[in-house]
C-alpha cells in the first residue's frame, strides 16, 4: 500500500504573510483524495521525534536554541521564518514522518512525505526555510539502528543540498548527489560527494540526459541499500526562483526515471517534496501530485 506522511501542522505554522510557501502542503493531499489517486487509508499522521534522534544529526547547542526559541535575530533571518514553538514542532513532525516512511518503504518499496526536503539545515544552523534536516535525520537513524549500511541521497531540488552536504561530508556511509542550478542560491555552495551544476535555462533534454547518464552508474558504483529522493519542483520553467526551463512533463519524467531505477535495483526509496515557487499554486500542486501518481502507478 502507498503510504504518505501528512500532518495538518505542515501547512499552518506561520503568520498570514508567510503562508504562500506552505499552502501547497494542504492542497497536495486534498487533490490526490479528490481525484481518487489515494484514500484516507494511504495517509498517516506522524508524531513528534525523540530528542536523541535529532542529536544524531544536529549539534546540541543548536537544538537547544531551537527548542528554547533563542536563535539570534541574524540566525532567525537566515531561516526565512519567524521562529515559534509551532514552527519547531512542525520540523520535528516532518522529520518523524520521514523516518516512519523508511519502514513503509522497506515494506512496500516506496513511501512519501508531503513535506520535508529541508536540505538547507546544517548540523549547527538553519537557513532557506529549513531548521532541521529531515532526510539527514532519517539517514542517521537508519545507520544508527543498523537498518542500513550505505545510503544514497538523490537531491534534485533546484537549490544545492548544502546542509546535507555539510552534515555528511566525512561520512562514507552516505553518498550525497545534488543536481542543481549553478547560478542559483546558495551562492556559496558546499561540496557534495557529487555535484552537477546546471546552467540557467537548462531544458528537458539537457536535464534528463544528465540524470539518465549519471544515476544508473552512481547506483552501480556505490551499491546503496536505501535511497532518499528529494523531488523539488522548483526546476520548472514557471518557477519564479528556479532559473531553469524544465517542463512539467520533463519534471514528471525525472520522477519516473528515479523510481524506475529504484525498482530495477530493488532499492527502497523515501521521497521528500522539497521546493516549488511557481506563481500559480496549481502548477506547484500538480507537479508534486505527479510524483505521488507515479509512485502509485509504478510500485503498486
From TrEMBL:
InterPro entries, per the entry: HDAC_classIV, HDACs, His_deacetylse_dom, His_deacetylse_dom_sf, Ureohydrolase_dom_sf
GO biological process, one term: epigenetic regulation of gene expression
Coiled coil start-end: none
Domain of life: Bacteria
Official protein name in the record: Histone deacetylase
Taxonomic path: Bacteria, Pseudomonadati, Bacteroidota, Sphingobacteriia, Sphingobacteriales
UniProt keyword terms in alphabetical order: Hydrolase
GO MF term set: histone deacetylase activity; hydrolase activity
Signal peptide positions (record): none
Organism, as annotated: Solitalea longa
Similarity comment: family membership: Belongs to the histone deacetylase family.
Domain Histone deacetylase stretches: 18-290
Pfam families: Hist_deacetyl
